[in-house]
Write a structure and sequence with these properties.
Number of domains: 2
Strand content: 15-25%
Largest sheet: 6 strands, mixed
Structural class: alpha/beta
Shape: globular
Distance between the termini: 24 Å
Bound molecules: zinc ion
CATH superfamily of the largest domain: ATPase, nucleotide binding domain
Number of strands: 16
Low-confidence stretches: none
Length: 329
């Protein structure tokens, strides 16, 4: 059985898995990403990989990490969702720590790689994936390889501003894609509109927000409102889909994506999101491109990252299982 180890480092969770060469996840470990900075994060990755290697004799490791990661595995700039995570050679440090050569790319690029090999992008080229969660990121796979760009900026669409006079983003600029269609952006926008607008937007969601029912509002509540035709929820949703349509169109015209895969937690509401993208996309793209654009929900779910990372590890190797499952503490 040929296997590799894939690691998916996100701002919220860290996942590591032993993955078979057909994309099947054989063993998955998940924990919360440490909040205390780079050294703690690297130590946690080391711990997970060691734990998997106690069960499986496998040396090849692929790692998806947040931020602008170049082909060589160097992180340019700083990722906002992990503290103290920037400007260092992630591949060199992890290879030294783990004692095995590590292939490191951006986390969304790895998820795109997974979907292009085993999921919604099978057989297509180029494949782009937009991950819609607490933030927005994209990954691109061209001719079977993840595309990074000289400074790892390929797919860094989250903080591309669509409107310099738009709403303030957490990056300090205005009108970013992420400020409208990430879960965080939508939630902030719902609170903002509830306070500012009355009349036409009044409804159950606005009243709940003003009463403070949702100190921790989730995107799911907004989509429940959309399903019930709540005016405030509908407006947040429509604005979000316009921003998302810009992201899709951008990938179609910049890399000529044959398929744009939409993944991430927000896509649990895909049956509401996909139809709402049609109109803004039709307005953005020339008809011959709009007709050819394929938009599909991801098929690998939250496992896309570990599967893609394992596939990018370089080589599938004959993995020997050392111990039976369940016999380890
Ligand atoms: Zn921004």
């Amino acid at each position: 059985m040929r296997v590799a180890i894939g690691v998916d480092l996100g701002g919220g969770s860290l996942r590591s898995a032993v993955v078979r060469e057909d994309g099947e996840v054989l063993r998955l470990l998940t924990t919360q990403t440490p909040r205390t900075g780079k050294d703690a994060v690297l130590a946690e990755i080391h711990k997970q990989v060691q734990s998997l290697q106690r069960e499986w004799d496998v040396a090849h490791i692929g790692i998806g990490a947040p931020g602008m990661v170049s082909d060589s595995g160097y992180l340019h700039g700083h990722a906002v969702n992990i503290s103290d995570w920037g400007e260092f050679d992630v591949a060199a440090e992890l290879s030294a720590l783990l004692g095995s050569p590590c292939v490191v790319r951006n986390d969304v690029a790895m998820a795109a790689f997974g979907e292009s090999h085993f999921g919604a992008g099978r057989g297509a080229d180029p494949v782009a994936l937009i991950a819609i969660g607490t933030g927005i990121g994209a990954g691109v796979v061209v001719r079977g390889q993840p595309l990074s760009g000289r400074y790892g900026a390929a797919g860094e669409i989250g903080h591309l501003s669509l409107d310099p006079h738009g709403r303030l983003c957490r990056c300090g600029r205005h009108g970013c894609i992420e400020a409208y269609c990430s879960a965080t952006g939508m939630i902030e926008r719902a609170h903002e509109l509830a306070r500012r607008e009355a009349g036409g937007l009044d409804g159950p969601l606005r009243r709940e927000l003003l009463q403070g029912t949702y100190p921790a509002l989730e995107a799911e509540r907004i989509y429940r409102g959309v399903a019930e035709a709540d005016a405030l929820a509908m407006l947040v949703h429509q604005e979000s889909c316009v921003a998302l349509a810009h992201a899709v169109a951008l990938l179609v015209v910049s890399v000529g994506a044959e398929v744009v895969v939409l993944g991430g937690g927000v896509m649990n509401a895909s049956e509401l999101i996909l139809p709402a993208l049609e109109q803004p996309l039709r307005a953005l793209l020339p008809p011959e491109l709009y007709e050819r654009t394929r938009i599909q929900p991801g098929e690998l779910g939250p496992q896309a990252g570990v599967i893609g990372s394992a596939a990018a590890a370089g080589t599938w190797t004959q993995g020997v299982k050392r111990v039976a499952e369940g016999s380890l503490k």
